[in-house]
Automatic annotation (TrEMBL):
Species annotation: Enterococcus ureilyticus
Name of this protein: N-acetyltransferase domain-containing protein
InterPro entries (alphabetical): Acyl_CoA_acyltransferase
Length: 352
């Protein structure tokens, strides 16, 4: 994870005396011994500017039974969330960690993922429940056990429940253009090879899987929940679009609303909140001017493993060069399927 504020480090490289671990040592008997026994295993970590830990995610690939849980686990391969801890600091880091573990579950074909939490960890429980984890049972120490099954729903209206999978059957497909200056900050895993020096920062609109996009394009008003968006990064200044502009990302529409539906400015600001790249001052200006009245809330599902340049969208995917406006347009299912095929999207992400 080069140039990313989240890094993979071995347990043995971490300082157990860091105040970050104090609550874990207090809550979990034997935590210190367990931690020291994992010295050669890796975890996802995030440090603040002072060099202190602010986030720690440890995952385990296990295939075993567990009778300490009621009801028990039968023999099955699962992705265990061994440790998931964040010192809250307003940047929605939990979304980023959750995205890492769910994508690992899908990419590596785990049947289930599970996490154990104490009832007092209400905010963490709410986050897991929002993204499809459900209460399974409990352990003797009153820890609750939540699981998320890696399965395709017959039809699930709540797209969060099966995130990061996306439904190609019950959806329309569109291409949405985004400027380079916004693109990579909103979609950090969709960086181009030419952006290898881009630093992924600990920012709320980078971390959250819920992205807010404001636009003046009137046609986006037709978007419905569950529709799919191919994110198209426009060309950088001075570069030829044919070879520099490209499709990079798949997103799912949560909703599309008009700025005029908000009762007041504060409710508008709260809605855009963590998911918008714009500053509060800029958002206040947009509220006054109504410059960008159409607002899209979308989930950042997956990056294309192979970015598709504009030339190949025409010559390989088959999109028409006669499309009048490349900022936003609807495409047929066949074109969308070709994009995810050429883009190398893991089929496990696709509900069809």
């Amino acid at each position: 994870m080069k140039n990313d504020y989240i890094q993979k480090k071995k347990f043995g490289e971490l300082d157990l005396s860091d105040p970050f671990f104090s609550s874990l040592i207090a809550d979990y008997q034997g935590f210190e011994g367990w931690f020291l026994s994992k010295k050669n295993q890796e975890a996802y970590v995030m440090y603040n500017d002072k060099g202190l830990l602010q986030g720690f995610l440890s995952l385990k690939d296990e295939t075993e039974e567990d009778s300490t849980i009621v009801p028990g686990f039968d023999l099955k391969r699962r992705l265990k969330v061994s440790t998931f801890k964040i010192d809250a600091h307003g940047t929605v880091l939990g979304h980023r960690f959750l995205g890492i573990l769910l994508k690992k579950m899908i990419e590596e074909n785990f049947e289930e993922a599970y996490v154990t939490v104490f009832p007092k960890q209400r905010k963490l429980i709410e986050l897991f429940e929002k993204f499809g984890f459900r209460l399974w049972g409990k352990k003797a120490d009153d820890e609750l056990v939540y699981i998320r099954k890696n399965e395709n729903p017959i039809y699930e209206e709540d797209i969060y429940k099966y995130y990061p999978k996306f439904d190609v059957v019950n959806s329309k497909k569109y291409l949405l253009s985004i400027w380079p200056s916004f693109h990579t900050k909103l979609f950090p895993d969709s960086r181009l090879v030419t952006e290898k020096n881009h630093i992924v920062e600990d920012l709320s609109f980078t971390n959250t899987v819920e992205k807010i996009y404001l636009t003046g394009i009137t046609d986006v008003a037709k978007l419905k929940p569950n529709d799919l968006l191919v994110i198209y990064r426009t060309a950088e200044g001075g570069k030829v679009a044919e070879w520099n502009a490209c499709a990079t990302t798949i997103c799912t529409v949560v909703e599309q609303i008009n700025i005029n539906t908000f009762e007041n400015e504060d409710k508008f600001l709260k809605y855009c909140g963590k998911g918008s790249i714009f500053t509060e001052s800029e958002l206040r200006s947009f509220w006054r001017t109504k410059k960008y009245p159409f607002i899209i809330k979308m989930l950042y599902n997956v990056s294309l493993s192979k970015r598709i340049v504009r030339h190949d969208l025409f010559e390989k995917v088959g999109l028409s060069r006669e499309i009048p406006y490349f900022g936003f347009f609807e495409m047929d299912n066949d074109y969308f399927k070709k994009i995810i095929e050429i883009g190398g999207v893991n089929e496990s992400f696709i509900i069809n």
